[in-house]
Amino acid sequence: MLTTDSRPRNLRWIHAGPLLYGDWGTSRLYVLGLAFLYTAHASIIYLAAIGLLMLAVSWAYTHICRCFPDGGGVYTAARQLSPTLSVIGSTLLLSGYIMTASISAIEAFHYFHVPHDLVLPLAVGSIILVGGVNWLGAKSAGKFALFIALVALVVSAIMALVALPAFARGIETISFDYFRQSPPSDMWVNFTKICLALAGVEAVANMTGMMKKPVEKEAKKTIWPVSAEVVALNLVFGLALAGLTFTVAGTEMLHLKSPDTQRIVESRESFVTTLPIETQENYDITRPIYLDEDQLSTLPPEGVVAYSELVEHREAVKVYTNAAMRVVAQNTGNDVFGPSFGTVFGNLAGITFGLLLLSATNTAIMAMVSVFYAMAQDNELPKALTKLNYSGVPYIGLIVSIIIPAAVILVEQDVAVLASLYVLGVTGAITVTVLSSAINTKLELTPITRVLFWALGLFLLSITITIGITQPISTAFSGTLVALALGLRTIRSLRPGATGKSLEAPGGGWMEILSLTPEIDPTKPKIMLAARGRYQSEYAIDLAKRRDATLFAIFVRQVRVLDLSPDKAPRIETDQAAQETLGTTAMLAKEAGVPFIPIYVTSSTIAEEILDYTVTYNCDTLIMGKSRRSNVARRLEGDVISMVARDLPEGTILMTRAADIPHAMMPPGIGSGSASS
Length: 677
Hints:
677 residues; mainly alpha; Amino acid/polyamine transporter I; Rossmann fold; 3 domains; six-stranded parallel sheet; 6% strand; elongated
């Protein structure tokens, strides 16, 4: 039997770069606003510091990609040291992906500037829609991601030019007062809050299994341009944001003297002081204050005014934290070319970055599916998560990957809160990857490189520990996921028979039949069967017998998993559907005395594999089944028969027939090579 993991290494840096940017570059869309929220005009210092950390992490991942050319990332790096550590690391990464999908979906509709009441239902609907598209295994989703990433790069470049006046003003606003007025502990904690800017770098390690060799060279060309763009434009737009004339609670951002986290507390305090003394103790100024109509009706006039100012302040802060890049585009467009241009330019930026965020949602969902799949393949999670649908998508994992982020945003939609949930998973996963690589003496790292890995890993560990202590909500979220994963792992290890071994099929099993592969006679005609079903097998065997031909049958297990390394690919030994399909043909061929060669392939492209094997074995006839996919699926994915027919060599006969049509045996002596479809 012929089996292969067909994972063509055809991913070049020119394609991998936009994919990485579509994941890593989206963090800018909310990090800039959060940095200004926490530190005001000291934000540029923080963005510069996080930029240096991003460059250091980029350097580390060039080595990680080199050391794991068949698919790296936290799961692979940690598993070489400890299966338990790999579960912890991958679950931390999983929590990051969950929050990426959630926050990106919410932020997308903030950038689209839809009414507040519609943000939640549209965000949930978009997650479900993305899941539906991926259920079909559509390649068009990947093409869409590349297109939007390139458009976003162009729009960002134009924005950088338009924002030059605000950028210049932003340079003048750089202030060190925050550092003189704040204790070191507060400065450090605020730095850790914006470390979610690192989110997305793991994506490049997951691409190495598909990268063109040498992987080290392609990885460097992928990582450095993206990291340079992200770091540089973070600084440009961070300064532009600080230099805006956008008004927040009566003060232009250009002239703010203290962070809005502090100013909002002051606004709450101002409101509370307008109330009767006996009711003031009912309000905690360190927490958001929300009043309904009945409560407002009991306030004194000055209290109503103060509460209105508080609401206005809170809403203005939400505008620049929810959609910082849209605010930069609209405000700088207003200043340079007038309000009309500013509105149009803001809408263009909003639509572009909103689509980029939806693309990030798509990437995060499929990355979740990948993590579930890899862990289930290693028996760390239920095997049900490895079940593939017709399009090669692990459909149970996909359903779970849709439900969890949708549930998260049903509970919470505030970007600052979602970001706090997000950051521990991001930094934790990267920390595990870097430290695992530093510890693993089998990896080819020079002594200096290993020392630098240790230094970077310990610094990242200090960030992770700080987040774990200071952001209990993030610790609770990620910790709960880790506990669930370890709990499931423990339960499965205690169950009898939880070894991953499949039961033998009746009569010795399909694999025994499939192992009886004859020698290929080069003098005989050859027929390729690329269709499923007993009727198809009977038809092909009958034709092969009458022509005294060798029959080949190919089963292509299409797989749509982003970071699937070769050792995690589906195998014929565990693919029951493939065993039954090929085994049925093998039994019928044996009964008919027809030489039969089964072929099992895992690949992302069905048509290419059918063509490749048909041409390789010089088959003069190819039998395919009529498509069972819906019109929608064929339009999104492309029709396999059409793609095969387009590139089939001249002289090779293509025959198609429906799988539900019984085969009537041809009378002896009729036809040997001429066929109808």
